[in-house]
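Two proteins were folded this term; both appear here.
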Amino acid sequence: MLMRMLRDIARIGFLLITLLVVAMPSNLAHASPGCSPSQSSSWQICGPIQAITGVNEQSTVIQASDGTLDLAWTHIGRNLFPSLVQAVNGTVFLFWSYKATTAKNYQLYYRTLRGSVWSAYTKVPLQSATMLNDTQPSTALAKDGTFWLAWTRDDSTPTGSTVHRWLMYETLNSAGQLKTGEQTITSSTDTNWNFQPSLLVPKDGVPRIVFSKGQSSLANFQINYVSWTGSTWSPAAAIVTSNSTANDENPSLTQDRNGTLWVFWSRNMNTNYAIRSEYSWDGGTTWRGETLLTAACSTCADSLYPAAVQSSSDKNLWVFYSTKRDERFRNLCRRFSQSLRGDQSKCCRIDLRDGSELGRLC
């Protein structure tokens, strides 16, 4: 199955990626990026899978019902922080933050993909209009078909006041219509920044969010965690405790088929940003196994914006992220080198047409 790049999403790239090995069309040039060891023996680095000239970052990925991995990311422009989710009926929703040329603030939008047709830009419905910035959306599907949407709101618009960043959420139905109005998760007056949410509704049906929290003046951010109690969100708790003065950002939360929760994030190592991970066997009560996945050194490239998912085809965990090489950010993939079935993994391989934005990942 071909991976398609849809270029009509106003500078947000979108890939459909299949993990099944199928025969290559004769008109595709073969160009395997290869795989190499990582900082952990359980992981390997494969890529780059995309190197469009310019900045390619803020990736998001889902396991689609047709067996493909759907990947979207930001490529320059006013369209930022994409988040993908698929409805029960198979419709793919792309949420993101967009600042129109006539707007004074960033607002949340979505488009839907049905077959090969994208809908028009649609503003995410809010109960109360705002002139504040709404960015960094994260979306997940509940068992009843409800979309849970979390995002960052800040008061940098209008200017002139201290910038606060806090988390908001609301729920939508499968048509993108409002079910419950927007509400705060963290306080809008908290002196800490609470931002960059990653929302997951795992097998037990309880929505969970990991996010970055801390003092912006100190560049000291910690990965925190909240879960839905049925009527409110639990108190925020730091789940990464290895370094209380670290700058930990851009978390991504996923669950494997055994029920284990995984969180991936980027840390400022004082030399560069590197990807790290932890997991929880008990539904988020305790977190363990912190692991460095990408290199940390004064000459090492930054590794940022991890986006994690488990493939239904090969059962491996995949983590897509951006890294800077030759003054360009590229999306790379990282795969767990031993699948949860006990099989050995296979390197990802991508073929791209010269000059176009089409290809296939096998």
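Next, the second protein.
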Amino acid sequence: MATKAEISVAFEAILGRQISDNDKIDQLLDMDIANIGKYLRNTSEYLNNTKSIEATGKWVAAKILKSRYLINLNLADKFVSFGCLIDNYEPYETEVFRRAIDPLCDVVDVGTNIGWYTFNALEVIGSEARVHGVEANTIVYNNYIESIRLNQLFDRVSAHNCAAGDIETEVTLGWHEQSKNLGSASIGNYSDQQVINKVKMFPLDMLVPAARKVGIIKIDIEGAELLALKGANRIIQRDRPKIILEFNPSGMEAIMRAKASDLFDWLLVHYSNIYQITPQGVSQVNSIDDISIKDGIANLLAENH
């Protein structure tokens, strides 16, 4: 439990002022210091002072990709949503992704977030090809679906509100309560993740109809990428699609109790060429030691020639 002195420090650090007679701090004495910080950051005083918007609070539609599409953005999200708003989200990965698309084949977007890669794919694929989008976080998914509706694209996009994995089951999805990027939700129940939901998990082989030919699979699901790949065995064996994924060693260990080498070894078995995507370009990697990790992740492209 916090002391009055600790609460006073929190007021000065977060609200920029001392405790006044109008502040009812008795309830704060029963909290630990971490929860006091969360409480103060959710007060109208803090939100007004910082012009901050709560993580799930304000979604608006805005034009992206040279005003071709309308997409629902989260004003609190200074990462994905802001990057989309200025048509500059993950520019190097996006360029490689667009070049890797076969216009005659379907695209699978696993971990769609608000839909940046889905809409980029729609600019490249032909009229007969489709995008299959998978997003586990229902809040994000509902806004993804709204973006599809705004652009009248249900004939070209199949959307799935679930996790992608190796088996059909139910899993726990958690994300940080104060996260401004709701797309960072991940499978697992962690002590520092306050928002917990149960979601269905399906293999990609179940989500993508067998009659569809897949040209590329993009996966960004916070460390569960190997699970999604194992659930796409039919697609990968038959269609030999290119793979673009986020390589997240710490996420893999937390979610799957797996090593980063497990994912890389899987890629080596199924693909003849593996590349790392960086601002300097695309460079081939022959071993896991060739991968340069920055901010905990790397972005990889795998393909067969």
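The mean pLDDT is 90. Residues 87-303 form a domain with the Rossmann fold fold (CATH 3.40.50.150). These notes refer to the second protein only.
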